[in-house]
Amino acid sequence: xxxxxxxxxxxxxxxxxxxxxxxxxxxxxxxxxxxxxxxxxxxxxxxxxxxxxxxxxxxxxxxxxxxxxxxxxxxxxxxxxxxxxxxxxxxxxxxxxxxxxxxxxxxxxxxxxxxxxxxxxxxxxxxxxxxxxxxxxxxxxxxxxxxxxxxxxxxxxxxxxxxxxxxxxxxxxxxxxxxxxxxxxxxxxxxxxxxxxxxxxxxxxxxxxxxxxxxxxxxxxxxxxxxxxxxxxxxxxxxxxxxxxxxxxxxxxxxxxxxxxxxxxxxxxxxxxxxxxxxxxxxxxxxxxxxxxxxxxxxxxxxxxxxxxxxxxxxxxxxxxxxxxxxxxxxxxxxxxxxxxxxxxxxxxxxxxxxxxxxxxxxxxxxxxxxxxxxxxxxxx
Amino acid sequence: xxxxxxxxxxxxxxxxxxxxxxxxxxxxxxxxxxxxxxxxxxxxxxxxxxxxxxxxxxxxxxxxxxxxxxxxxxxxxxxxxxxxxxxxxxxxxxxxxxxxxxxxxxxxxxxxxxxxxxxxxxxxxxxxxxxxxx
Lengths: 381, 134
What we know:
Chain A is α/β, with parallel strands linked by helices and 381 residues long. Chain A has one domain (4-110, 200-380): 3-Layer(aba) Sandwich (Peroxisomal Thiolase, Chain A, domain 1), CATH 3.40.47. Helices cover 35% and strands 19% of the residues of chain A. Chain A has 13 helices and 12 strands. Chain A has helices at 22-37, 61-64, 80-93, 124-128, 134-149, 153-167, 181-186, 214-220, 255-267, 284-293, 302-307, 324-328, 332-347, and strands at 4-15, 47-50, 71-73, 99-107, 189-191, 194-195, 204-213, 226-234, 246-247, 276-279, 362-369, 373-380. In chain A, α3 (80-93) packs across α13 (332-347) and α6 packs across α10 (284-293). The model of chain A has no long low-confidence stretch (mean pLDDT 96). Chain B has one domain. In chain B, the strands form 2 sheets. Chain B has a 5-stranded mixed barrel. In chain B, strands 2, 3, 4 and 5 form a 4-stranded antiparallel β-sheet that branches. Chain B starts with a strand and ends with a strand. The mean pLDDT of chain B is 94. Chain A binds chain B through residues 111-112, 114, 116-117, 123-125, 127-133, 136, 139-141, 143-144, 147, 188-193, 244-249, and chain B through 6-7, 10, 21, 29, 31-33, 53-60, 62-63, 65-69, 76, 78-80, 82, 84-90, 92, 98, 103, 114-115, 125. β9 of chain A pairs antiparallel with β8 (87-93) of chain B, so a sheet runs across the interface. Chain B: Pfam families: OB_ChsH2_C (PF01796). Chain B: InterPro entries: ChsH2_C, NA-bd_OB-fold. Chain B: Residues 44-110 form the ChsH2 C-terminal OB-fold domain. Chain B: This is ChsH2 C-terminal OB-fold domain-containing protein.
């Protein structure tokens, strides 16, 4: 297997862009990524891409050019972007190609995600009774975690406050105004214990990454950011996932535990070696739980971490440096690649007002979503 | 106007309410509801009493479809209740103030009027309520 480098990064702003389709947002991101690499669409030897609800990614050739390249559609829920990255990484690591592109984009209707029972192999009554609501799952997983490990509502507020504070300096973020913790804690309750500022919202956006072999990266003068690990894992027995009419009393692992362990093994480093991290923050509590599931701290230690600001930009492990899903919103097909975009930007030292100090060399990203899937990447400079 | 369960095979309402789960014929694993696969799963009555495993409050009206609850929405609590020796079931919670909900509290099965269907029937749904003391 040969080393793979990220040689170009591009993003279409997250949030709402009326009049621009999800696919077009993906194409805009692709153009930006290729320009960043000093390449053009005819240079792309392959593509992997996907969206959850904005159409088939391979139709992007209508926007970018009919070069005849192989383009593989990815539809993998919240791991769509991560899976596109893995496909691209393997295409180059295997030696089959020198350069190619991973694209993720989406455009969701306003309001909560509306899932139907039949899409999840569930009986009709489950939706009729009011259980097909993703926010319920996140709230109940968190409610139990807080009770078992002594996590307070104040910590939930601190996570959201940090997200909006970081996003002030991220041009691609959606919600870029600071929100103080009292406003966050006293806002409308959506699903106890989570208020409206503690949940991300369905949104729009596009991200693209150009990947290349070491030889090609050197030619381009872009051999700075290397992919050390890229993995996706599905759920093990006994994990707690969205849309579960029942679960076993004997509790088990979680897809994030599997993905994180595999990624650290692939990279040959451990959590203590990571300089910054982007962790799935569907809601404030998810970031807190994922700090532990990814091995960065013990269950319950997040109280001390957040009280001391250790996940702030200038902390010991900055987390969600661009404001994460809380501030950028959640276009499902694009979020995983946004995290990698942000990490690559930080490792190049181009974070501007949100740049992590101290010349970071390693960056970790983690997505998690329905129906129990997790993707982790580790980058190194 | 009559009475109808939200679905067949989920629960019995009389003489005492009972949830119907499924037991895997080989492994003995118990799930709810009973899968529609009689070759591998047999129906089994689940315990009526359990403890609250986690909870939240549904503060906004879920989208319709699929939700069929009343248009005139009032927030309702939901949770998971651990039924000893069986499984942990997802359920609406009833007859409890939101601020009394506590993980580990004793809960008992009941059946509630949940909605009215197009024919004016009273649609019944299983739920759990705090167990009465003594």
